[in-house]
Amino acid sequence: MSKTKNDLPTKTRDAVVKVLNERLADSIDLMMQSKQAHWNVKGANFIALHELFDKIVESSEEWIDDIAERAVALGGVAHGTVRVAAKKSNLSEYPLNIKAGADHVEALSNALATYGKAIRAAIDATDKLGDAGTADLFTGISRDVDKYLWFVEAHAQGK
Predict the structure, then answer these.
(1) Phi, psi of 42 (to 5 degrees)
(2) d(CA 124, CA 91)
(3) What is the pTM of this model?
(4) In Å, how far are 5, 7, 48, 124 from 117, measured between CA atoms?
(5) What is d(CA 152, CA 143) in angstroms, rounded to the nearest whole number?
(6) Which CATH class name applies to 10-154?
(7) What is the SS3 assignment for 135?
(8) By C-alpha distance, which of 143, 88, 111 is closest to 37?
(9) pLDDT in tens, 4-55
(10) Where are the domains of the chain?
């Protein structure tokens, strides 16, 4: 841990940075899964899904940056390489052989739901550790993820 005048105890900061890096791996994976969907979606709802998936990518980039910068601000090191993300992500592997919009909706909604659950667990974990700032960061991400899950799932509903 780097020296800092942050008044959170070192033990707390260590534990919070661990949680941040766990969610950083998931966030990088989610961004790339969303980009995979964006690049490969086909079908009647192509443009709507293509643009929606790209919005998720853009938001994921912001979450990644916020999570990584919080880890460093607490005196830690952000573990943000693709190789680390591949090893540490809790998301399921994204299917590479799908094309149809409905299949991407299913796959990406599964990834968003898994990610959202992990983010909510991070809210609870960092709150219990006494870091309201990081819990608040995760709370904001959680709201965004729930919104995007709703947007993606809406494409499979109403039939």
Answers:
(1) -140, 160
(2) 19
(3) 0.96
(4) 32, 29, 26, 11
(5) 14
(6) mainly alpha
(7) helix
(8) 111
(9) 888 899 999 999 999 999 999 999 999 999 999 999 999 989 999 999 999 9
(10) 10-154
